[in-house]
Amino acid sequence: MHINRYFYRAGDFWAGLVALIVGFGGLLPIATDFFYWIFSVALLMVGIYELFRGLTNNQSTADKERKKHDV
Asked: How many domains is the chain partitioned into structurally?
């Protein structure tokens, strides 16, 4: 696993960031509905996962990036 130098280009990173923002908005005291709170917690978990995927690369993704830039 490697840190993705081009994390700002990764769709996973931006999807995770948006999910975190929307999830935190659902945890505000204004949202009193239990199911809305559950949905917000699920969004937070998905957001953390996607953000982590966008910030890191596995070896095959890094190889694809190198091949793309070598062309």
From this structure: 1
Q: Whole domain around residue 37: which residue ranges? A: 7-70
Task: Read off the pLDDT of each residue in 10-19 and give the average, rounded to a whole number.
Answer: 85
Which residue type does 64 have?
K
DSSP codes, 28-42: STT---HHHHHHHHH
Sign of torsion over alpha carbons 24, 27, 30, 31: positive
The pLDDT tens digits of the residues spanning 23-60 come to 887 666 665 677 777 888 888 899 899 888 888 876 55
CA 56 to chain centre: 11
> Residue 13 domain-assigned?
yes
Q: Is residue 47 part of a domain?
A: yes
Task: Tell me the H-state helices in the chain.
Answer: 11-26, 34-55, 59-70
- Domain-embedded: residue 2: no
